[in-house]
Automatic annotation (TrEMBL):
It is found in: Cell membrane. It is a multi-pass membrane protein. The chain crosses the membrane at residues 7-29, 49-73, 104-123, 135-159. It comes from Biomaibacter acetigenes. Residues 219-273 form the DUF2179 domain. The lineage of its organism: Bacteria, Bacillati, Bacillota, Clostridia, Thermosediminibacterales. Keywords: Cell membrane, Membrane, Transmembrane, Transmembrane helix. One of its GO terms (cellular component) is plasma membrane. CDD domains: YitT_C. Gene3D superfamilies: 3.30.70.120. This is YitT family protein.
Amino acid sequence: MKIKTFLLEYLQIVIGSFIGSLGLTMFLVPNKVAAGGVSGLATVLHYLFGLPVGWTMLAMNIPLFVAGVIFLGKGFGLKTLAGALLFSVFTEATKNFPVLTHDLLLSTVYGGLILGAGLGIVFRARGSTGGSDLAAMLINYFIPTVSIGQGILFVDFFVIGLDGVAFNWELAMYSWIALYVSSKVIDLIQEGVNYSKAVYIISDEAENISRKILNEMERGVTFLGAKGAYTGEEKNVLMCVVTRLELTRLKNIVHELDPRAFVIVHDVHEVLGEGFSFGNESGKVPLKNKNR
């Protein structure tokens, strides 16, 4: 099983690196859109000095990787090295692929989307392509007051600012759009598209509501102990996670048993457990596990 997982993760890194390279070579690089990070800096240097984008990315990532191993430990492992190497190699291998559009808006949106999809697949396999995230970790190591998120923002701001100085500020603004699109797609790949809903129910009919959810919806319910700040009364708060399609049915059950119940609903981007991301594919909780 470990070998299978190992091979699957590296296959994802290969596929993700290839897809990400297409976002660069078929959309972003030909239109001088530098979507932050090492790839964006390599794009700027390509047009200023004629340097190949793929090998320039590799040349910048190798010292970053070595510094990461020296100062941050060997936790990066082969996945970061493999991701950085493959991303650079695929970028060079696909540099002569046809450019699908020279429309700046289309190239920005589609390039950011494809780049983000590829990087998201790599990150989902617990890999990395080096670049701004590794640079940000090093910045955080030497300047602890700068968080990794702030470090990534600083690196991307610097690269896109350089894009504006080297070419024009309109291209820099398009680069910000590409960066935003790619980051959102990365989050989507990481978190998945099957958003669920977490529901908290405060009611005097908590027992009856929980029983009906268990029996009719076959969803697990958890009692959370709570105390009213104004009344000082001890009561149970029900917590239940359901799919978006089940939310209306759940609210109807609550309203039927207690129209005055206080209900809080919020999005859950990822749910790991039986009945959701893995385990029982039907989306239902088996009877033996209902009373958890």
